[in-house]
């Protein structure tokens, strides 16, 4: 038996799990928040000194947590750009998070390359404000002196791996992390340095992209450090998703990603073509409105208990919510591409104007919107036979009752766990043993559509009819 550790450096904290390399059984765990400066007005900072990640890591690993560990895997927050100078020092704090400052830079990049389709063909995605390529453009436009000092580019997990190895001359990353940068193509498996130059105004050194089971190196003490990957890819690996599986994330916004055998090029930009941590691909479709629609409806109904109380109310209604349909486009929408629209409540009749029917319509609207996103992937040949449902809202009774019939598949709600850290540990075991570890899948509740499949299809048809009436051709 070997012992491995998985380290997940999220935007707010570091979690570490120490596991048996053969079975994946968790032996020990550690946790520490990142020592970040508070942001005026709340929210997360968009500029972070990477040393905060190391300090958090050291605290989480205290008390002999890593004693006996033979290999470490690292996962970290997506889209965190660490710009380095010729000496390997940070030019400025890392640019992290969904950086709204870069929205204009994203549009500028689309114009500079010629079109959204040109970007989709080049790297499988259209620039968004959060992506490193867009942050580079923002840096060149707003901090030109700093931009000129940039000699090398890393992401959060790359930088942490490099630090654990003692800052060697060789710098590495993995396919998963590289695929989210906006300057690496999942289809060709290669960097696009011309796009770095387009964004930054000059070339910069890019890390070597390692294979899924490769080691980034070994510390002087003999500790193997695996390639590392982004949080999304690590969580999928920790869950054990495979071909035929999709993962639906229920946050304020939503996303649907699925395992696929090839990279997808989508000229509309609806699909972001990511690579996973196993050598496969993870096409992702995002929606802007998920749990925010539930929270908004709860507030509208004066429910102090939020989505939990809304769920209790919704199950008192029936499928189709007596004809009420909520198009939950409260923040505009990305899928379908309706950035300037608003939500719509349709089907108001005297008999439908009851709180429980509005509550039911909110859940059906949220899940029909995610089912629409799932259909975008299915329309491109992605096989989806099982859906993993993640996020606190996945525990709600109304979600578990409605999702299987609307998605038309088995729905799995995994037991809460540190899946990104577990995925990083599983990658460490791969680097240690040279074989893909066949760890037991996540403990979970399983829900089947059963006899309600036809009912779910009718609810979706009701939703589609309203969507087409209000936004004709939205998915054309």
Automatic annotation (TrEMBL):
<dbReference type="GO" id="GO:0016773">
    <property type="term" value="F:phosphotransferase activity, alcohol group as acceptor"/>
</dbReference>
<dbReference type="InterPro" id="IPR050406">
    <property type="entry name" value="FGGY_Carb_Kinase"/>
</dbReference>
<dbReference type="InterPro" id="IPR018484">
    <property type="entry name" value="FGGY_N"/>
</dbReference>
<comment type="similarity">
    <text>Belongs to the FGGY kinase family.</text>
</comment>
<feature type="domain" description="Carbohydrate kinase FGGY N-terminal">
    <location>
        <begin position="5"/>
        <end position="230"/>
    </location>
</feature>
<dbReference type="InterPro" id="IPR043129">
    <property type="entry name" value="ATPase_NBD"/>
</dbReference>
<dbReference type="InterPro" id="IPR000577">
    <property type="entry name" value="Carb_kinase_FGGY"/>
</dbReference>
<dbReference type="InterPro" id="IPR018485">
    <property type="entry name" value="FGGY_C"/>
</dbReference>
<keyword id="KW-0119">Carbohydrate metabolism</keyword>
<dbReference type="GO" id="GO:0042732">
    <property type="term" value="P:D-xylose metabolic process"/>
</dbReference>
<keyword id="KW-0859">Xylose metabolism</keyword>
<dbReference type="Pfam" id="PF00370">
    <property type="entry name" value="FGGY_N"/>
</dbReference>
<dbReference type="GO" id="GO:0016301">
    <property type="term" value="F:kinase activity"/>
</dbReference>
<protein>
    <submittedName>
        <fullName>Sugar kinase</fullName>
    </submittedName>
</protein>
<keyword id="KW-0808">Transferase</keyword>
<dbReference type="InterPro" id="IPR018483">
    <property type="entry name" value="Carb_kinase_FGGY_CS"/>
</dbReference>
<feature type="domain" description="Carbohydrate kinase FGGY C-terminal">
    <location>
        <begin position="246"/>
        <end position="432"/>
    </location>
</feature>
<keyword id="KW-0418">Kinase</keyword>
<dbReference type="Pfam" id="PF02782">
    <property type="entry name" value="FGGY_C"/>
</dbReference>
């Amino acid at each position: 038996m070997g012992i491995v550790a998985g380290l997940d450096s999220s935007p707010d904290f570091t979690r570490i799990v120490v596991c048996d390399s053969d079975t994946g059984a968790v032996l020990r765990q550690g946790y520490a928040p990142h020592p970040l400066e508070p942001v005026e007005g709340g929210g997360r900072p968009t500029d972070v000194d990477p040393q905060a990640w190391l300090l958090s890591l050291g605290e989480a690993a205290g008390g002999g947590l890593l004693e006996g560990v033979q290999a470490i895997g690292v996962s970290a927050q997506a889209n965190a750009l660490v710009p380095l100078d010729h000496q390997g020092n940070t030019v400025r704090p890392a640019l992290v998070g969904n950086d709204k400052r870069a929205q204009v830079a994203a549009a500028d990049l689309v114009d500079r390359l010629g079109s959204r389709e040109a970007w989709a063909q080049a790297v499988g995605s259209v620039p968004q404000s959060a992506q490193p390529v867009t942050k580079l453009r923002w840096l060149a436009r707003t901090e030109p002196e700093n931009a000129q000092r940039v000699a090398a580019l890393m992401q959060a997990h790359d930088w942490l791996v490099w630090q654990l190895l003692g800052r060697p001359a060789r710098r590495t990353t993995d396919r998963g992390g590289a695929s989210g940068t906006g300057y690496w193509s999942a289809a060709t498996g290669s960097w696009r340095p011309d796009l770095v130059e387009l964004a930054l105004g000059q070339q910069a050194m890019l890390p070597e992209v390692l294979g899924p089971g490769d080691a980034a190196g070994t510390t002087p003490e003999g500790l193997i450090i695996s390639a590392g990957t982004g949080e999304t890819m690590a969580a999928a690996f920790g869950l054990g998703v495979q071909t035929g599986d999709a993962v639906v994330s229920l946050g304020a916004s939503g996303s649907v990603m699925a395992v696929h055998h090839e990279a997808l090029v989508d000229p509309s930009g609806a699909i972001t073509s990511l690579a996973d941590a196993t050598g496969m691909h993870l096409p992702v479709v995002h929606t802007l409105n998920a749990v925010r629609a539930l929270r908004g409806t709860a507030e509208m109904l004066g429910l102090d208990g939020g989505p939990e109380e809304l769920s209790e109310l919704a199950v008192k209604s029936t499928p189709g919510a007596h004809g009420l349909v909520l198009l939950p486009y409260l923040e505009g929408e990305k899928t379908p591409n309706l950035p300037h629209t608003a939500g719509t409540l349709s089907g108001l009749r005297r008999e439908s104007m009851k709180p429980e029917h509005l509550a039911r319509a909110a859940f059906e609207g949220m899940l029909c919107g995610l089912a629409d996103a799932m259909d975008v992937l299915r329309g491109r040949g992605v096989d989806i036979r099982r859906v993993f449902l993640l996020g606190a809202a996945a525990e709600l009774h109304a979600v578990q009752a409605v999702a299987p019939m609307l998605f038309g598949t088995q729905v799995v709600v995994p037991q809460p766990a540190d899946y990104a850290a577990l995925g990083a540990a599983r990658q460490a075991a791969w680097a240690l043993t040279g074989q893909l570890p066949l760890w037991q899948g996540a403990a979970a509740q399983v829900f089947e559509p059963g006899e309600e499949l036809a009912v779910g299809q009718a609810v979706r048809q009701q939703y589609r009819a309203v969507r087409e009436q209000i936004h004709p051709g939205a998915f054309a």
